[in-house]
Description:
Layout: H1 8-14, E1 23-28, H2 38-49, E2 54-60, H3 64-76, E3 82-86, H4 97-101, E4 107-108, H5 110-125, E5 135-139, E6 142-147, H6 151-173
Parallel strand pairs: 1-2, 1-3, 3-6
Antiparallel strand pairs: 4-5, 5-6
Amino acid sequence: MTELPEGTAAHRADAARFAVFRAAVLTVTDSRTRETDVSGDRLAQGLTTAGHPVVARELLPNDESRVRTLVADWIARDDVDVIVITGGTGLGSRDRTIEAVRPLLEKEIPGFGELFRLLGYQEQVGTAAMLSRATAGSARGTLVISLPGSAAAVSLAMDRLILPEAAHLLREIRR
């Protein structure tokens, strides 16, 4: 990796206070159950293995109102720093996660989705990466991330984006 731009190293050092963050994991699906929720399992296990407690986990159908209500409830909690949602971000008629979450966000982080799609294009699915509407943003000091439902997409986002940058993102959101 090249040398970090001026200030970035200091920001990351200051982000050490968020080295352990508390997460909530939501799977949005019409076809999986808790027993078959590979993507949700991968998120929860990846976060826990990295030392970040998962304080809440749910599975909901593609129901915009229910997803918005649950995410709003998690944003209001003092013990949730990061919310990671998997599923419902595609182009299908039932894919409404982005529509459910976007009104709750105070600021979007467009670079998250852009970088996720670039990595997906380069490393996983080629031009099909454009079908993803993955996004991230902040709401009341909480980092909210919406990912596709595939286990491969979840792994890519966890390994390449979320775990390396979440503490830095929280530092920026909460300063």
